[in-house]
Automatic annotation (TrEMBL):
<dbReference type="InterPro" id="IPR001680">
    <property type="entry name" value="WD40_rpt"/>
</dbReference>
<dbReference type="InterPro" id="IPR015943">
    <property type="entry name" value="WD40/YVTN_repeat-like_dom_sf"/>
</dbReference>
<feature type="repeat" description="WD">
    <location>
        <begin position="101"/>
        <end position="142"/>
    </location>
</feature>
<feature type="repeat" description="WD">
    <location>
        <begin position="226"/>
        <end position="267"/>
    </location>
</feature>
<protein>
    <submittedName>
        <fullName>WD repeat-containing protein 38 isoform X1</fullName>
    </submittedName>
</protein>
<keyword id="KW-0677">Repeat</keyword>
<dbReference type="Pfam" id="PF00400">
    <property type="entry name" value="WD40"/>
</dbReference>
<feature type="repeat" description="WD">
    <location>
        <begin position="185"/>
        <end position="216"/>
    </location>
</feature>
<dbReference type="InterPro" id="IPR020472">
    <property type="entry name" value="WD40_PAC1"/>
</dbReference>
<dbReference type="InterPro" id="IPR036322">
    <property type="entry name" value="WD40_repeat_dom_sf"/>
</dbReference>
<feature type="repeat" description="WD">
    <location>
        <begin position="143"/>
        <end position="184"/>
    </location>
</feature>
<feature type="repeat" description="WD">
    <location>
        <begin position="59"/>
        <end position="100"/>
    </location>
</feature>
<dbReference type="InterPro" id="IPR019775">
    <property type="entry name" value="WD40_repeat_CS"/>
</dbReference>
<feature type="repeat" description="WD">
    <location>
        <begin position="17"/>
        <end position="58"/>
    </location>
</feature>
<keyword id="KW-0853">WD repeat</keyword>
Length: 298
């Protein structure tokens, strides 16, 4: 647990969540910060009490490793994407499966909800991104243009844009209100493993080239190159105010960066295995990471 990240960033406790039987591929807080969702290679989704660490439920349904998961911004739903080529939409209150979305031809590596919780984006090994109507469960649009696996995706919280990151070394920024083919952001020298928008409007991308790049997504201009990881950057997350960025990688480090000047302000200890995912809680007071050793740390 990290206290007051916008002012001081000190470790005051580390809590472990140890019930998965496979690598933890994704972890995310519910919008009210009371629950934590984790997804694993054991084909299971777990929901935890974020404060006590109690395992609230184990969710079954996928028939392959669960590669991605997220809550809807309104907290009523969560979604998961799997190696079984399906996307599942679940009701948060009952964990009932609302939809099994079929449309991808290969493993689904990323899922994310739109800011109004009405749409869901998924993408993966088939090199396409699919936009779904969440309530109906139908395909609204298919985005094509990447030349390799799409491993990451994100919606902008306050503009009609979304981004996808691919193993073709590029990030694409798509305008949901336009029929254009998207803006391509090039510069990374390795696969793109993670993308995220900040509330102020920046876009971050992390790569196997060990760097993080901060972009102006509208102009495509590069703002910062964050260089300091010694291994692949696997996950990143902006704080609520957009002033901090946390990054996790295969170098067994979680780094926290100041987005005003691009400087690393903290290297978090307690990560003894490659960190596969990290995320800030919506209130900005907590940071959680998931690792190869099947543990989540908060």
């Amino acid at each position: 647990m990290w206290k007051n990240p916008s002012k001081s960033f000190s470790v005051i406790a580390i809590r472990y969540f140890e019930r998965h039987k496979g690598e933890v591929n994704a972890c995310t807080f519910s919008p009210d910060c009371t629950s934590l969702l984790t997804c694993s290679d054991d084909s299971r989704i777990h929901i935890w009490n974020a404060k006590s660490g109690e395992l609230l439920c184990k969710i079954k349904g996928h028939t392959g490793p669960v590669k991605a998961g997220c809550f809807s911004p309104d907290g009523t739903l969560f979604a998961s994407g799997s190696h079984d080529c399906t996307v599942r939409v679940w009701k948060t209150e009952t964990t009932e499966c609302l939809h099994v979305l079929r449309g991808h031809g290969k493993s689904v590596e990323t899922v994310c909800f739109s800011p109004n919780s009405k749409q869901l984006l998924s993408a993966g090994w088939d090199r396409t991104a699919i936009l779904w109507d969440v309530q109906v469960g139908c395909i609204l649009k298919v985005f094509s243009g990447h030349h390799d696996v799409i491993q990451s995706s994100a919606f902008s919280p306050n503009t009609p844009y979304m981004a996808t990151g691919s193993w073709d070394y590029t990030v694409k920024v798509w305008n949901l209100k336009s029929e254009d083919k998207g803006k391509t952001l090039a510069g990374h020298k390795g696969n793109i493993s993670c993308v995220s928008f900040s509330v102020p409007g920046m876009l971050a991308s992390g790569s196997w080239d060990r760097t993080v790049r901060i972009w102006n997504p509208l102009s495509g201009a590069l703002i910062f190159v964050l260089d300091g990881h010694l291994g692949w950057v696997k996950s990143l997350s902006f704080s609520k105010d957009g002033m901090l960025l946390a990054t996790a990688g295969y170098d067994e480090m979680i780094k926290v960066w100041n987005c005003e000047n691009g400087k690393c302000i903290k290297v978090l200890e307690g990560v003894l295995e490659p960190a596969l995912t990290c995320t800030f809680a919506p209130d900005g007071a907590l940071l959680v990471s998931g690792a190869i050793d099947y543990k989540n740390r908060i």
